[in-house]
Design brief:
The structure holds 2 protein chains of 2 kinds.
Chain A (H helix, E strand, L loop, with lengths): L30 H7 L1 H18 L9 H21 L1 H12 L7 H7 L3 H5 L8 H16 L5 H7 L20 H7 L6 H23 L6 H6 L12 H7 L9 H6 L3 H4 L3 H8 L9 H6 L1 H13 L1
Helix pairs in contact in A: 1-4, 2-3, 2-7, 9-10
Chain B lengths: L1 E8 L4 E6 L5 E6 L3 E8 L11 E9 L4 E3 L4 E3 L5 E4 L7 E6 L4 E14 L23 E17 L7 E6 L5 E6 L2 E6 L2 E10 L12 E6 L6 E6 L4 E5 L11 E3 L12 H5 L3 E4 L5 E5 L3 E6 L8 E4 L8 H6 L9 E3 L5 E5 L4 E6 L4 E6 L15 E3 L8 E3 L11 E4 L3 E7 L3 E11 L2
Parallel strand pairs in B: 28-29
Antiparallel strand pairs in B: 1-32, 2-3, 3-4, 4-5, 6-7, 8-9, 9-10, 10-11, 12-13, 13-14, 14-15, 16-17, 17-18, 18-19, 20-21, 21-22, 22-23, 24-25, 25-26, 26-27, 30-31, 31-32
Classes of the chains: A mainly alpha, B mainly beta.
């Protein structure tokens, strides 16, 4: 159903015909296959995948472009709304729920959330994977340096770890990093304010996510998270390991989270990354550019930690 | 009919281009935080064979890369916008901004130096007072022109998000700066305080669906400004109404064409630039595929719409994939508001003559760079049989984009920035009269 390693071609010939009430004609035996077999659904699915990847892959050193993120998120939301109306969404969820296993998660999630696994599985509200994922890296550093801040809460609420919890609500908003954005506020403000903000927002976020987590609400949020599994990270895969082989495992601690750069090359299964890099130089960061930035990051790390 | 005049090679990607109010100076900002100012050679201005020559006048480093330790993020030194202040004395002033900090720069000339001090030698050494037998008056003697740029004000720490616009008010005392979610009002003399006049940040960031993309003050009414959004709306605000201009006085929005609806509709409706006409009666907006002229008195729809590259509509998915769909093109008016110009891909740029209802596509390329060479109109073949000299959509180079263009405030001289090069073109009839 979701063949691993397949690069879907998105045909440009003509725009997708959109009328929100459109029902894709079923064409094969299984319900999902039926829906997906129509070219429109396939294209829509492909667009959705592309959008999700775009939300994740931003250059980690500089703050991601908010306008671009908002536009992509809105597109994702739009697709999800349409799919919900179609009924495709519900079918998708069910199929995925059946197939999902907790170990399946995008590698990046693992990297980012290694130390917060326990907390996350304790049922803390997960946050969107997308743009938030990047911010997590940034704010964990912030959190560490200001010892007084309720760091654990902040960090853990931001990790969209287990699939069940990963209502990684792209739709709850990739900016649902409420705590992060609030903390980001007012450079001039004192730390106290930031703490307050983060606490406030964390509780807001948690409430919001509790709603999302209610099982019978067929909200896109809850279901959406399962999309992370769509391309499950393969078990020890030689190609994957080769990709990460020259990454120093010692990075897998605070540094990793801090730099966040590590996440970029690992954010998707290797095949996705490959297919992306073939899209031309103007696209998303390739693993090579990420690696070349590691030296820069070393330097930056020295500044932060060394001083 | 436009002619090639000059080309300048930039060390880095050009990120903004702006003429000053007389057109004598042309400023460019680049990705490396540098500002390069060109000055027009005006000696032969009254001759029929007038060739608008621009030469490098001053170069300085406006912004340096910074590191935000709190967020572990780099702050790019790229100059997002430059705006000139109207000239008040011998010196020139401009505002330049990167993502977070705005700076006021003073550019002044020095072409004389004092000579003949009584107590000092010419090289600065002090004379022995016992050897002085006569007194003289020091005189100013000419020297080689030296242009100095010095930062006079630094307006920092007022923006959480990335600054996309700055605009100097017609009162010449204040200016606004806009980021993705907020607009601040500054006084040019005061750097430690700014007034927040627009705030569209939702209480819950998860509800964020719209950002501010551009903002500008009205050219004559110092109380009026507009800001555009990623959803294709423009809001006109009156600062007299209330301190916080969250409620607009006018909302300009064109209803969507249902036949063109797609998943990309919102993205391509996002406005990348908004510019008032010089006369203050109209404003122009640029979205991904078109340029729209709005009458400030009519909010329901634009009075004119010009398609920049409609042939891209069927390519939107590819353009989304390679991120080109997020390119922010700027637009500009000519001096008498009769022609508007904007850039496109493949180093093409487009001009729309409002009065004569004509449009032309020109190309900024090294091949067409002989002095006074006439620019040949280009044509893109959208489909079907490609005629000779036409370019097919599939052979367009999307890496060659013209995002920044500027038109001399009085004459028909234009500055067009490709990625690394600045082109100056002039019309055969340079003067607009």
């Amino acid at each position: 159903m979701f063949p691993k390693g397949t690069k879907r071609k998105f045909s440009d010939s003509g725009e997708e015909p959109v009328s929100s009430g459109d029902q894709s004609p079923p064409a094969a035996s299984s319900a999902v296959a039926r829906t997906l077999s129509s070219s429109y659904s396939l294209q829509r699915q492909s667009l959705l995948d592309m959008s999700l990847i775009k939300l994740q892959l931003c250059h980690m050193l500089v703050e991601p472009n908010l306008c671009r993120s908002v536009l992509i998120a809105n597109t994702v939301r739009q697709i999800q709304e349409e799919m919900t109306q179609d009924g495709t969404w519900q079918i998708m969820t069910q199929a995925l729920a059946a197939a999902q296993c907790p170990a399946d998660r995008l590698v990046a999630t693992e990297v980012l959330c290694r130390q917060t696994d326990a907390a996350a599985q304790a049922g803390q509200s997960p946050k969107p994977f997308s743009v938030v994922g990047l911010e997590e890296g940034y704010h964990s550093e912030e959190v560490v340096m200001e010892g007084d801040v309720e760091t654990e809460v902040t960090m853990s609420t931001l990790s969209p770890v287990s699939p069940q919890l990963s209502s990684a609500s792209y739709l709850a908003g990739p900016f649902g990093m409420g705590p992060c954005w609030e903390e980001e506020e007012e450079d001039g403000e004192c730390e106290e304010d930031e703490e307050e903000d983060s606490e406030e927002c964390v509780s807001e976020g948690e409430e919001g996510d509790r709603d999302h987590l209610s099982e019978d609400s067929r909200t896109g949020e809850q279901v959406f998270g399962t999309f992370e599994i769509k391309h499950p990270a393969p078990p020890p895969d030689p190609a994957l390991e080769e990709l990460f082989s020259d990454v120093d495992p010692s990075y897998y601690d605070l540094d990793t989270v801090l730099t966040g750069m590590q996440a970029a090359p690992k954010m998707g299964p290797y095949d996705l990354l490959e297919s992306l890099s073939s899209h031309g130089p103007t696209t998303l960061s390739s693993s090579s550019s990420c690696r070349s930035d590691l030296n820069e990051l070393d330097h930056i790390m020295e500044i932060i930690v060394g001083s | 009919m436009f002619l090639f005049v000059d080309i300048f090679f930039a060390a880095d990607i050009i990120s903004t281009v702006e003429f000053n109010h007389t057109g004598e100076l042309l400023a460019t900002g680049d990705k490396g935080g540098r500002v390069v100012i060109f000055q027009q050679e005006i000696e032969n201005k009254n001759q029929p064979q007038f060739r608008s020559e621009y030469n490098v006048y001053s170069t300085f480093q406006s912004h340096e890369p910074e590191f935000d330790y709190l967020k572990s993020l780099e702050i790019e030194e790229k100059i997002n916008k430059i705006r000139w202040l109207p000239q008040k004395n011998a010196a020139q002033f401009l505002l330049s901004t990167n993502d977070k900090t705005i700076k006021l720069w003073k550019i002044s000339e020095r072409d004389k130096r004092p000579e003949g001090y009584n107590l000092k030698e010419d090289d600065g050494r002090f004379k022995d007072p016992n050897n002085i037998t006569s007194l003289r008056v020091p005189v100013l003697i000419p020297m080689d022109l030296m242009v100095e740029a010095s930062p006079r004000r630094v307006f920092a720490n007022a923006h959480t998000y990335h600054i996309n616009s700055i605009s100097v008010n017609s009162d010449n005392e204040t200016y606004l700066s806009a980021d993705d979610l907020r607009i601040n009002l500054w006084h040019l003399e005061i750097t430690d305080r700014s007034f927040n006049i627009v705030d569209i940040k939702p209480a819950n960031m998860e509800e964020l669906t719209e950002v501010i993309t551009a903002a500008e003050f009205h050219p004559h009414q110092c109380n009026t400004f507009v800001y555009s959004s990623s959803k294709g709306t423009i809001r006109l605000c009156d600062m007299r109404v209330s301190a916080l201009c969250d409620k607009h006085s006018k909302l300009f929005e064109e209803p969507e064409d249902p036949s063109n609806r797609s998943f990309f509709s919102e993205i391509i409706s996002s406005i990348s630039d908004v510019k008032f006409s010089h006369n203050g009666r109209y404003m122009m907006t640029r979205d991904y595929l078109s340029v729209k002229i709005w009458d400030l008195n009519m909010e329901s729809r634009p009075v004119e719409t010009y398609q920049v590259h409609e042939y891209l509509r069927s390519k939107l998915c590819s353009l989304y994939e390679n991120d080109c769909i997020f390119d922010k093109f700027e637009c500009c008016w000519n001096g008498n508001d009769s022609v508007v110009m904007t850039g496109s891909y493949n180093n093409f740029f487009r001009m729309f003559d409002r009065g004569q209802r004509r449009d032309v596509t020109l190309e900024a390329s090294r091949e067409n760079s002989k002095p006074m060479q006439v620019l040949k109109p280009r044509k893109v073949c959208a489909g079907g049989k490609r005629k000779k000299d036409e370019i097919s959509v599939d052979s367009l180079d999307f890496n060659k984009k013209i995002l920044h263009t500027a038109w001399h405030p009085q004459d028909n001289i234009i500055a067009v920035a490709t990625t690394n090069n600045l082109y100056i073109f002039q019309d055969k009839c340079v003067f607009t009269d």
